[in-house]
Amino acid sequence: MFIEWFTEHLLITYNDREEIFEKSDILLEEPKIERIGKELAVPEETEVIDCTGLVALPGFVNTHHHLYQTMFRGIKEVQEKPLFPWLIGLYEFWKYLTPEAVYYSALVGFSELLRTGCTLTSDHHYVFPNGQPGTLIDDQIRAAKDIGIRFHATRGSMSLGKDQGGLPPMSVIQTEAQILEDSDRLISKYHDASDFSMLRIALAPCSPFSVTKRLMSETKDLARKRGVMMHTHLAETTDEEAFCISKFGRRPYELMDELEWLGSDVWFAHGIHFNDEEVINLKGSGIAHCPSSNMKLNSGICRTSEIVKAGGKLSIAVDGSASNDGSNMWEEVRRAYLLNHLKYGTEGLNAYEILKVATRGGADVLGRNDTGRLDTGKAADIILFDLNGIEYAGCHDPLVSLVCLGNSSLTKMTIVNGKIVVKDGVLLTLDSNEIGKTANKIANDIVQYHRNS
């Protein structure tokens, strides 16, 4: 199918030439962009969509999430706690996760992400409760296929339980043999490294306080043998830093360096508490900046501008919904912009730069050069915004409008792989109202079961 796009406002490409077009067309043929230009000649049967007055960007790329946490938003027992006590409290709920809960939590998160402009998302699922199937990543993958989002599933893991000096209870950890066997299975069954791939697998031990050094090393060996990326939480809190120094005699970054967990095939969630030397020596590793979660848990502020200036790879992520209460990617971009200016003032990243981090930056962090930019031969992952409403009136810069204004975070249209999946804020592939009803029942059953047990 061919689709031609008209926009009389702006088409911001973030391609290698940093092109910005006015009154230009985009010609699509699934799954890629065929041409960009003015008054393109197209076959007579081409489907034409008039996007006069809209702004087009590459789709946002979310580089860190915990989709299962959409079932655990607003749990009153943990609302006013920092990370470690917050986790300890929530493990007692998470140990009741089921395959059905994982599937519907993924649908909820994917729905929010797509409606707010995310076309490619990763997820970090590391909770595998005792007594439940070990195939919970498969349930997420099924949800991604059903809803039509480009997905990087990471096989998370926890092997260091409370009885062994770690943070999580023994009820949610697995043996290292189980973890590695399932990691290899998922890569063999699902990983697609080709251009325009809708599904890739990465390996993701949860954190320095929930896995052993041996698992980190063996995961690295498996990932590099199989050619997949690696992911983990790092330098999120001062508690984590104190834990690593006490247990390993290393700062979190130093531990990763020792374990050879740095490089272009690695990305870290948060990256807040790096020192000056570490910021300039990430060795190609990417950072997923999670502003809302970091603010809510009082974790700190990522050194975003310094990472960018040092040539590091920076992206934006929503993190788990239990720590920020949503999967709203557009709002996360706005908060990243504002938090950056809170920290750096007039030297902060401007609107164009922060949107580049949210699009091309995220794709680069996930090792994708086929998306995150609009250009001939690149993936047809496009988001369209309508800035004609009263809430944008009087603003003279559309990019500033996108990161500072608006009464809604819903796109006019979200296109993934050349297919329209959201139009006027409505999900087209599945019934989001029915997803929400089912998810609410599952979530309420889990929480009430725990509170009554």
Automatic annotation (TrEMBL):
Keywords: Hydrolase, Metal-binding, Zinc
Keyword Electron transport applies: no
UniProt EC number: 3.-.-.-, 3.5.-.-
Domain Amidohydrolase-related: 56-421
tRNA processing is among the record's keywords: no
Stretch forming the signal peptide: none
Superkingdom classification of source: Bacteria
EC category name: hydrolase
Entry-linked CDD domains: ATZ_TRZ_like
InterPro entries attached to this UniProt entry: Amidohydro-rel, Metal-dep_hydrolase_composite, Metal_Hydrolase, MTA/SAH_deaminase
MF-aspect GO terms: deaminase activity; hydrolase activity, acting on carbon-nitrogen (but not peptide) bonds, in cyclic amidines; metal ion binding
One Pfam family linked to the record: Amidohydro_1
Alphabetized PANTHER family for the sequence: AMIDOHYDROLASE-RELATED DOMAIN-CONTAINING PROTEIN, AMINOHYDROLASE SSNA-RELATED
The protein's name: Amidohydrolase family
Organism, as annotated: Acididesulfobacillus acetoxydans
